[in-house]
Amino acid sequence: MSQSEKCAICDKSVNAKVDIKCDKCLLLIHSTCSGLSRTEVQCLLSKDRHITYYCVKCTEKKDEIQDLKQLILSLKSEIESLKNNTSKNQESKHEYMEEIIFEINERNLRSSNVILLNVNESNASTSDERKSFDMKKSIEIINQVADVSTQNIKCRKTNGEQDITIKYIRGIPTIVPIMESKK
Ligand SMILES: [Zn+2]
Ligand SMILES: [Zn+2]
């Protein structure tokens, strides 16, 4: 007995004259196993058959392929969104690192700043004279505590402002209000 003579559903022998053939797997199926109405079976059995018939097994397979396609599509979009998230995370990590490096550099630069308080003031009449007096005094004080070159020292006198600090703005040490330096 060849396979084509058995019903694809119940595996029992079939009769090609009264049973119907699946247009996909080309196997015969008992008209009673097909789940079709008598009229539908009659249509399928007519010699000039115009409609196609897929057995239950072939229809299920078709559905499975549809499900798999759907799954692949949803996985694809999931991968895409994961990729986007990763690159966003790396971007913000990068920005964060830049901020840290900037802060470290600025602290290094600021580490050479010295603030002198309660230095005697000059009574000279011109501001240039007062500046050079401040510079002389500062160098004297620095030389008392450390043996460093005072050649490149720059002097900036405060005017009694409160809440100020030194911040590097474009590489130049600048006295700014503390609130502004936190920006
Ligand atoms: Zn059958
Ligand atoms: Zn089939």
UniProtKB/TrEMBL annotation:
Which SUPFAM superfamilies does the entry link to?
A: FYVE/PHD zinc finger
| Domain of life (superkingdom) | Eukaryota
Q: Which residues form a coiled coil?
A: 58-85
Write the record's keywords in alphabetical order, separated by commas: Coiled coil
Q: What name does this protein carry?
A: Zinc finger PHD-type domain-containing protein
- Upper taxonomic classification of the species? Eukaryota, Metazoa, Ecdysozoa, Arthropoda, Hexapoda
